[in-house]
Write a structure and sequence with these properties.
CATH architecture of the largest domain in chain A: Orthogonal Bundle
CATH topology of the largest domain in chain A: Arc Repressor Mutant, subunit A
CATH class of the largest domain in chain A: Mainly Alpha
CATH superfamily of the largest domain in chain A: Winged helix-like DNA-binding domain superfamily/Winged helix DNA-binding domain
Order of helices and strands of chain A: HEHHEEHHHH
Shape of chain A: flat
Number of helices of chain A: 7
Mean pLDDT of chain A: 84
Structural class of chain A: mainly alpha
Helix content of chain A: 55-70%
Largest sheet of chain A: 3 strands, antiparallel
Largest interface: A-B, 37 and 36 residues
Strand order of the largest sheet of chain A: 1-3-2
Low-confidence stretches of chain A: 186-190
Distance between the termini of chain A: 32 Å
Oligomer: homodimer
Number of domains of chain A: 2
Chain lengths: 199, 199
DNA sequence: GTTAGCATGTAAGGAGTTACATGATTTT
DNA sequence: AAAATCATGTAACTCCTTACATGCTAAC
């Protein structure tokens, strides 16, 4: 995950560790805080794997700054990590990190990941809903409030994903000229949050 | 964290590991998935610390089931973990787990934790807002969408906390008879999400 | 009688954090 | 000249996961 983020940022431009941490905190600070204790070892690891290389600026007089640049091999590693299916399911932050680098994916891959994420959230939503209904009597107010809040937040996330999926599909269709908008097959469990058609 | 969750659930009733995992998945499954590989060692650890003890049911004929019960020492450990200040700041799930056991806290402690959580989210919100404004031009659409979505989600969380704080304060005041509702001092940075007064 | 679910555990390892240690450069 | 912040790194440790290993019991 850290490797993915580092390589993704280095694709923009070469940077040293300190800068990487700031950029990381800027963009993903909400869900992702990295410490130097993991960042610097990760850079060394990537360097050993030849996914990044150090640049020695001509004016090597001043303070020591290890500026890293992504290599061709690093590009390949990045692409591989970004599409990898195993990890994105477990933790929430993982999806966000991936999403921040979505522009490097092909449209189909984007839609695939969005759909997978949607399915995951839908499953979680259904589980939560079922738990609330099953336990609603024997549960304290705080836990119930937490679960309902979580339920609402998940619904918002799903609607956000729907909008993104729609946008991707529009974009994928435009190049081929104006086509009929196909209705999406809704995996319709009873009571699931409806996809927002216009929003 | 795991220790906290285990002790909290055992306060309700004695359980064995398998049951604990199911209860955990039920209530906190959305943000918290534990594997047996961490659950069983944690139970042993708690047993060594004498925070829990095993019950040997009279009918010890059938399948082996290690039913654990919380001890007095365990109650103390639980209370300590629940109020601890260090950990709740870093990760999001930590607050949720704590919140699920809010009923075991004194009202003042509840308000204190809610306020602290609010301050944390407010800080994160402000940081994100600032990042969006600063980088808005040089950033790709996906990252921007992610940040705006995160911003909105944080606002929702803050409003939820506001409602909870208000409810706690009402409850804290009622026993002393009907009193004037004091307006809360708003830590007013420019553009911060307003507290919802009625909702 | 075999599949599914109940039940407990261990060993190895992954992914990070905290705390410590050091020193240069810029700002006040 | 002191304080802040830039910049890099290591060692120990935390907390959890994955994969493996075992065996019982209920249901089909």
């Amino acid at each position: 995950m850290l490797e993915l983020a580092i390589l993704g940022l280095l694709k923009e431009r070469a940077m040293h560790g300190y800068q990487l941490k700031k950029r990381l905190a800027d963009t993903l600070g909400g869900f992702w805080q990295v410490s130097y204790g993991s960042l610097y070892p990760a850079l060394k690891r990537l360097q050993r794997e030849e996914a990044v290389e150090m640049i020695f600026p001509k004016e090597q007089v001043g303070r020591r700054k290890n500026v890293y640049r992504i290599t061709e091999k690093g590009d390949a590693v990045f692409a591989d990590l970004l599409e990898r299916v195993g990890h994105e399911a477990t933790q929430d932050g993982n999806f966000s990190v991936r999403f921040a680098f979505f522009r490097y994916l092909k449209p189909e891959a984007r839609i695939r990941l969005l759909e997978r994420r949607r399915a995951l959230l839908e499953g979680r939503w259904a589980d939560l809903k079922e738990s609330v209904q099953r336990l609603k009597e024997g549960i304290d107010g705080y836990t119930l409030s937490l679960m309902n809040h979580e339920l609402a937040a998940t619904e918002t996330d799903i609607r956000w994903l729907d909008d993104l999926i729609q946008a991707e599909q529009r974009q994928a269709q435009e190049p081929a000229g104006p086509r009929r908008t196909r209705a999406r097959r809704l995996p319709e469990a009873p009571g699931l949050p409806q996809r927002s058609v216009s929003r």
